[in-house]
Amino acid sequence: MESAHFTDVTLRVDGTDHTVHIDNRITLLDLLREHLGVTAPKKGCDHGQCGSCTVLLDGRRATTCLGFAVAHDGAEIVTAAGLGEPDNLHPVAQAFLDHDGFQCGYCTPGQICSAVGMLDEVKSGSPSHVSDDLEDSPELTDAEIRERMSGNLCRCAAYPNIVDAIQQAAR
Ligand code: FES
Ligand code: FES
Q1: For ligand 2, atom 4, which residue shows the shortest CA distance?
Q2: Is the pTM here over 0.90, yes or no?
Q3: Residue 118: how many CA atoms within 13 Å on its side-chain side?
């Protein structure tokens, strides 16, 4: 029996508009994967700890497994699948390929979205925990990349290559 805990929600995902009638308890990740067939964001931990479900949510990186979809009515979501085209890859995706920034690939869509969001944060001058100076624009050292990508785990431990890939994309 349907009750008051269902809501109409409209989202734009990778350029396509969707209006869905959803249970208010569904997470954004489950809405994307189970209802919209958008499988680029992966379910790793489902506890906000691994980063594999990361997307760009209204232009900022965000994990999708902890947020309720109903809280994001009207949002624009870009997943790794919506960045670039297969024959014209986004520079970050191309850099991951060039540097073998993955092995099994399960974490990779989240890593790529997180890297895109992270590079924008650096560009806007946002400091991290390891930035020497909170006022100056941060320099993109390997330590900065590791710190800023520390929310994205990789069980295959492709970390050195991921750092190299992000350095290439930043250039
Ligand atoms: S599945 Fe969302 S952080 Fe792990
Ligand atoms: S490439 Fe396998 S988990 Fe990262």
Answers
A1: 154
A2: yes
A3: 29
